[in-house]
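Subgroup meeting minutes
Present: P.N., E.W., G.H.
Scribe: E.W.

1. P.N. recapped why we're keeping a running log of single-chain structure predictions: easier to compare across weeks, and new members can see raw inputs and outputs side by side.
2. G.H. added today's entry (360 aa).
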Amino acid sequence: MAKILWVSPYGEGWSIAYKLRESGHKVVYWCPDPENTNGAGYLPRLESGAEWIDYAKRSDVVLVDATPASRQTRRSWEPSDLSFALQGLRHHGVSVIGPTPTTELLQNDRRYLRKTLAKCGLSLLPAEREGAFVVPVTLSLGPFGQLSLGFREGFYGEVVTGDVVLPLQPCALSHRSVGLLQSLLDITRHSTYFNLDLAVTATDVYVVGAHAGQMYPAVFAHLGDLLGVLDSAGGVVDREDQGASQQEPSRAPALVTTLFHRFDTESPAALDELLHEPGVFGFQFQHPERDHPQSGGATRDFIAGALVVRDREWGQLSSKADAELQRLTGLYGLEHRLGDGILHDIPALIKQLHTWGYLS
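Output recorded in log:
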């Protein structure tokens, strides 16, 4: 079993760490923001920022579930202390899955992204092409070279309501996007997910944005695969050889849906039980009796968590997700904002990418 330090800049991935701990790993959690109480009471936490470096050096792996904010300088941006500290740990031989100073800036500094893309033969989507027909897609490169294709549903407030994550083999699209950045990522010791939002036309591949880390809610499918937390049906894996190391992911298409608190009713079942549902990951709630008895249960924040549904048969994914969402939203007093478009449109978008020769 692995000894894991889970670092969560915004408290987004704590429930994956919780599921790892439940399956037998020794997991300790640290959030640099002392006011962030997501997941309070479910994991042993480092309360002092001074502790985490020492604990990291004694861990089998340090896993960071998000990219921290960069510091603004007079003329530009510079990487955060956290990314510099992670790079220092790598130089000391510590196994780190997380952002580097360079990949942090690729996400947070638009000018730096544009200059880097130009050097690598890529370009941002020009304003004059924004009205043209494009296939919007996110291409993700994992820390061990795993590729996946992502389609995003939309926004409710500032929250993405759903992601579809499809396993991908090396192809023309990956060669013309993340493949052109591979040398840079190798030099900078890239060791986390790197995601490019793309606008693809019949002849061109443009970059819309970059994410050097996890995207919510796709994070739960990506890290669930990477760490072996989920099997192909969405259940928790319990294997002695399971750990935060390279292994063959389940490679089943996944639909990840954001779950929201429904404020007009009290939950008929304890939200504490939600964490033990197959494929469910909590986000903004605390345990009412562990460490924070004054919380009174779930925090009344916006996001309750996310549901990961998998099926190797594309035609079954929609009905399977609908049935599970109906059950969970009724049982726990939740709601979701997932529309029909994300599942109905994707086959046509994939067919278009095939027609243009990007998936061969």
